[in-house]
Specification:
Number of helices: 8
CATH class: Alpha Beta
CATH superfamily: SGNH hydrolase
CATH architecture: 3-Layer(aba) Sandwich
Strand order of the largest sheet: 2-1-3-4-5
Order of helices and strands: HEHEHHEHEHEHEEH
Number of strands: 7
Radius of gyration: 26 Å
Strand content: 5-15%
Largest sheet: 5 strands, parallel
Length: about 270
């Protein structure tokens, strides 16, 4: 009888120890989950043009049809960040550094920005357009517009990051990629140095990528649509400025790489 009693006591002791271990494990797990859920999310706001913006299903349906493949590179960036980063992509198709503000797109963004947030800034493609509503001069009004976005972002305690514009797929007869931005790209690089604001040179990075693919294969990065694929585009489409899903993803990958290269704190949140 004594031995049976000892065995029963031992079994009860083992069960109690197992229960304590289980309770402790559940408690630790609860603490980890609570800590993770309590961590403050970092918000990235982005302002720019169609090479950066989100394209809604209604837009895709209107201009091409279901599964129309146009994308802005910032639309693909959530794939590269973990769940602690929230992206608010405010970029708009057709806007320049001037019209983005004058049309009222900047106001709701700057009103929401909090200390510690980030603002990705990329204009240039539409600043080259001749119409007075969008055109800017790279050495004066373009620089001034970017500087205003920078200063207003800093005033909110947030962190601006400048991006140079993506290259257009334009090769000369010798198969060499042609620069179509000129001083607009240089203006961003100079302003970054002058204001101590980090610059991710997507112009150079995208140029390297397009050059690597070459005149023919680089079409897969842009919006090249075969005739008959979409009912609204019976003759197809050849667009050397805008990105397809694959191209936008590759540019987003270059942007993520750029965050690591400039040693941005955001790099810690990349997958």
């Amino acid at each position: 009888m004594k031995s049976i009693f000892v065995i029963e006591n031992q079994n009860n002791s083992d069960m109690n120890q197992t229960l304590k271990t289980l309770v402790a494990s559940v408690f630790v797990l609860f603490l980890l989950i609570s800590f993770k859920s309590g961590q403050k999310k970092i918000t990235i706001y982005s302002i720019g043009d169609s090479t950066m913006c989100d394209f809604s299903p209604s837009y895709l349906s209107q201009f091409g049809g279901e599964n129309y493949p146009i994308r802005g590179w910032m639309q693909m960036m959530p794939e590269f960040f973990n769940e602690q980063v929230e992206i608010q992509n405010a970029a708009r198709s057709g806007r320049s550094s001037k019209s983005f503000r004058t049309e009222g797109h900047w106001k709701p963004v700057i009103e929401k920005i909090k200390a510690g947030d980030y603002v990705f800034i990329m204009f240039g493609a539409n600043d080259q357009k001749p119409d007075t509503a969008r055109h800017t001069d790279p050495e004066s009004s373009y620089r001034e517009n970017l500087l205003n976005y920078i200063n207003e972002t800093k005033a909110k305690g947030a962190h601006p990051v400048l991006f140079t514009s993506l290259v257009r797929r334009r090769f000369d007869k010798a198969g060499k990629l042609v620069d179509t931005y000129g001083e607009y790209v240089n203006a961003v690089r100079k302003l970054g140095k002058e204001t101590n604001v980090p610059v991710i040179d997507l112009n150079q990075k995208s140029a390297d990528l397009v050059t690597k693919y070459g005149p023919e294969e680089s079409k897969k990065l842009f919006l090249y649509i075969e005739p008959g694929k979409f009912s609204k585009l019976p003759e197809g489409k050849k667009d050397d400025s805008h990105l397809c899903v694959f191209g936008a993803t590759e540019i987003a990958r270059l942007a993520a790489q750029g965050l690591k290269e400039i040693k941005s704190p955001l790099a810690a949140y990349l997958k």
